[in-house]
Structures are given as structure tokens and as C-alpha cells.
User: Fold this.
Amino acid sequence: MIDEIANCAYHLTSGLTKKGHEVHVLLDVQRRVDRLLFTHHIPKSATLKWIRPLPIRPRALGLFLPLLWAILRIRPDVIHVQYLWSHFFIGYIAAKLLGIPIIGTGHGWEVLDVPREPIRGTIQRWFLKRADMIILTADYYHKSMEGIVSRERLIYIPRMIDTDMFRPDIPAKDLLAEYGDQIVTFVARLFKIKTPYKTINAFHKALTEVPNARLLILGIGPEENNMKKTVTELGIADRVHFLGEIPNPEIPRYLNASKVEARGFNPLTLELGISHLEALACGTPVLTYNDYPDVRGMIIVLHVDEIAEAMIRLLKDKEFQQKLGREGREYVIEKFSIEAGTEKTIQVYKKVLRQRGRS
Assistant:
């Protein structure tokens, strides 16, 4: 297992090891951050190796030999790479040398944007066409991949959420004592694509009805200074708290303290994000974008005034907030469990091994 996306491989590794599979996880040391679950805990019976690149630019070239050598030493039966970019290319070369199948999982940017780019898209297409199977974490990603990978080598398997780690009723008395019980959370990287300014502006409006509310921003990124400037200009710096990169095992406590997760309002993105699902698993309602027809526990909003109105209702109407929270957790357990996702992935492994004439 090669992971370039925080926590996606962790949940799958947890499921695979529980079913008796031997899993070797290879991670770039650049990913060793607090929000990465592998940083804090290694699933029982899994083997984890941090790969340190050679001092060569670009970084992908520095990773090439160390990562390739690590794979060749393990000699796995199947290579599974999370993310369809540089790590996947290295994994493909290793698979070719070993004569084994390679599977890639597509998560977002590398599925929707890279294929359209003239240079990077050409490189990516060359490798994708030679993969044994491509797993997509959103069903609408098929539109981007169908012209590159044949339909029979594409499969949709939703992201997985650890509903034991992300669950309701986790004690958070210290957070409630510090920030009060009218908490709004924003859990995301601080990039423009997450449109955090809509959350901030909506929260500003919501304060007129719920003056004791607090907005907790969990994450780091290039927009942090501009966000802090915006908060100061709005005169709400005492109500908005930038908490930085919170260790992932701690995030469920913040979500349990929160009345609502207001994360990212990008109308061009159709996929449910990990932060959405983690909040729902904790029984925390989510304000989000786009029309997800079967998602429970969410309120679909886009414009700042709508976001503010939804915040106010969730902060003031305890019964409504709890009802949405229950529905959201039920939805995640039903659609995004580790057990269901792991079993589907195992079937993919068996299929590609059979196609290679291996049991």
C-alpha cells in the first residue's frame, strides 16, 4: 500500500489486517503530519515504512529510487497506490519489474484536473491505460476516466470512515468550558478552494442572532493570514479561533463539541469530503454545497445568507440539530463503513490476481 492521501490508506489497512491480510504501507516522510493517523498509530499486524527522498528536485525524482527499492524488497502480491500521480507511476514500474498487478485509487484533483492538462495529462494517461484496475472514490469521476481507462477496469468504492473513532458521545467538557456550547467548526486545509471566507462571513451574520457562538478553525494553509485579516476587519477576532493542525485522533472531540460543521462551499465540487463524513459520523450536522439527493444529516446551502440562516437554526434548535445528527451518523454507517469498503477492495484484488493467473 502506497499512500499519498492522508488517512485513506489507514482505514483500508485497518480493514485488511483485521481480515488477516499482510499489509506493508509506504509513506513519504513529507506526509508525517499530525492529521495523519499513521503518525499516531499503526494498525495491528501492518508494517509501516517512511520513505525519505534523495535530495533531488523535483521531489518525485528524489522519491523514485528509495520508493522503488522499498517495493522491490517487499515483493508484494499486489501494489495498491492511493492517488493517481507520481507515486502511482513509481508503483507501476515496480509492478512491471515484479510481474504483479497494480491498482490505483483516484481521489479528486488528479482525476478531475490532471487529465485535461497537456503535459501532465499525457504522462498520466500513459500509466493509467496500463493499470490493472482503477478505484474511484466518487461515482461521477467515471466521466473523467472513461476516455482513458476501459469501463471494465473502473470501479467505484466509496471512501471509508472509522465510525468507532468518529462517533458521538466523546467527552469534550474542556472544549465546552473554554468556548461555550454554541460552537461552529471548520475542519479543512486553508485553501481558497475550500472557500473559508463564506464560512467566516456567514458566521459573522449568525452572530447577530447567536452572539455567544464561536467558530473553531482546524487546519493550516496559505490562506491563514488572509483569513485572520478578514476576521479582524469584521470585528469578530474574539469569536473566531485558529487552532492550527489538530492531531487527527483529537478531531472527534472537537466535532462532538460542535453544533455544526460548516466546511467548504465550492459549487463545482460534487464529492463528499472526508471532513464531511467524519462530522456526520460524530453526529454533527453539516452545512455543505450541491444537491446530494440521498445524503442525510446535511443542509444544502450555497449563498452566505443561506449559510448564516442554517447556522442560526442549528445553534438555536437543539431538537432539530440532534435529529440531523442521528440521521447523519446512520447514513455514514450505512454507506461508508470500513468493513463494506474493505470487502469490495478485496474482491478487486482477487479479480486482478485471477486475471494474471495467480490465486
Observations:
- The mean pLDDT is 91.
- The chain has two domains: 2-160+337-355, 173-335.
